[in-house]
Design goal:
CATH topology of the largest domain: Rossmann fold
CATH class of the largest domain: Alpha Beta
Number of helices: 15
Number of strands: 13
Shape: globular
CATH architecture of the largest domain: 3-Layer(aba) Sandwich
Structural class: alpha/beta
Strand content: 5-15%
Distance between the termini: 37 Å
Largest sheet: 7 strands, parallel
Helix content: 25-40%
Length: about 400
């Protein structure tokens, strides 16, 4: 470890100590029964990902507003939330006060190093990926930064439950997330809509973005490059190497119809940018990076392309064609570490070039693909039955009902 890294860690530990003291000072305020605080992507996310669908289920159970007070910490106050959820600007003071007085925390990313939880508070860590390509935690080996290790271990020690959608995740989360507590195999709340609302979203997403009802959508959603712990996330900082004109033409030749390319940035990068800086923009391309929830758009998608995003596995649950365009595979592995999967043992075609992508689309076999996807999901014990949000809401409901009524020091 370099001298600079050691200095940075000492600074982070001092900040964590001060933050922890701040949380403890605010214990003069009592925990409020039924107060539930949500956060997504460190506040950069809007009404999205797993916390969104848990919140929606709790809203359905909170008809007169008497059971729960739902709070969402968000960095951008222009984000829209449904009635029944109060958005709060994610400042330090607001965050500490509302977390210190909440009954339940629900988050899909790490809490800040130094965050303090009271004894009678419940923290459900939903995480923001299930089956995934990118090595996480101890799977990164020597490439896992010491500060990331400290933050991960600290957050995992706070969590009461971590959600899993599969036997694959349940087996690996202790090493990935440095988590030793109880893992709930609930399924992914964000994938519930693939079963409960897909046909509706297939129509409404087309209306929202002004494309014909019979238009075909291919979504390209690369993951972020570099950065972490509020550092810089990079992708599309330079011109994309994917040939979008070739992509549209190839899909038309293979499947027919008029194709629209939906482009989606990683949420934390999208929060820093007004749009995607592409030089060759065409009328059939749509930037959906500012859509709060990616899975709403994914539910309306006909073909999905990514590099290393876990959303490929989400898309597998609706059996749409998935292609991996990994044109920087070797560099990515060198930077992040060995991928979590042997790329020859997944049901998706993998290519590093536009020519290779064109070839893979051309030889796509729908029947064989669906058979391989179903076999893959079964082998790894994936549970996605549209009821994940209900299962998590049941846990919250039981916890709130059994509250003892003390301060939870």
């Amino acid at each position: 470890m370099s001298e600079q890294e050691e200095k940075s860690i000492r600074q982070r530990k001092r900040k964590a100590y001060i933050l922890n003291w701040f949380y403890r000072m605010l214990r003069i305020f009592p925990v409020k029964k039924g107060k539930i605080v949500f956060t997504a992507f460190e506040g950069d996310g809007g009404f999205c990902c797993n916390p969104r669908y848990i919140a929606e289920e709790l809203l359905r159970r909170n008809i007169d507003g008497s059971k729960y007070e739902l709070i969402w910490l968000v960095n951008n106050m222009e984000r829209q939330f449904p009635d029944g959820i109060r958005k709060i600007r994610n400042t330090l003071l607001n965050r500490v006060y509302h977390l210190a007085t909440a009954h339940v925390w629900i988050d899909n990313s790490r809490k800040a190093y130094g965050t303090a939880k009271r004894k009678n508070q419940l923290y459900i860590q939903t995480w923001h990926a299930a089956l995934e390509f990118k090595p996480v935690g101890m799977f990164r080996g020597k490439l896992f930064p010491k500060i990331a290790y400290l933050v991960s271990r600290y957050d995992s020690n706070l969590a009461d439950f971590v959600l899993s959608n599969s036997e694959w995740c349940t087996k690996r989360y202790p090493k990935m997330l440095l988590y030793k507590g109880e893992i709930l195999k609930t399924g992914s709340p964000r994938c519930d809509i693939f079963i409960t609302k897909r046909m509706e979203l297939y129509r409404t997403i087309r209306e929202r973005y002004g494309i014909p009802a019979d238009g075909k959508i291919v979504m390209f959603a690369p993951t972020f490059r570099g950065g972490g712990q509020k550092g810089n996330r990079r992708v599309f900082c330079e011109e994309s190497t994917l040939d979008f004109e070739m992509l549209s033409n190839t899909l038309h030749e293979k499947f027919g119809g008029r194709w629209y390319v939906f482009l989606r940035l990683h949420p934390q990068l999208a929060a820093q940018m007004e749009g995607i800086p592409l030089k060759n923009w065409s009328e059939n391309m749509v930037d959906v990076s500012q859509a709060d929830d990616m899975n709403e758009v994914l539910a309306a998608t006909d073909v999905f392309i990514t590099d290393y995003s876990s959303s490929a596995f989400d898309a597998a649950n609706i059996c749409i064609p998935v292609f991996l365009f990994a044109d920087d595979l070797q560099d990515y592995v060198q930077d992040r570490g060995k991928l979590m999967w042997d790329m020859t043992k997944i049901p998706f075609a993998v290519t590093e070039t536009n020519e290779g992508l064109k070839e893979e689309i051309g030889k796509f076999d729908k029947e064989e693909y669906e058979k391989n996807v179903k076999r893959f999901l079964k082998k790894h014990g994936v549970l996605e039955d549209g009821k994940a949000s209900e299962r998590v809401a049941d846990v919250v409901e039981k916890f709130v009902a059994n509250w003892r009524g003390d301060y939870g020091e």
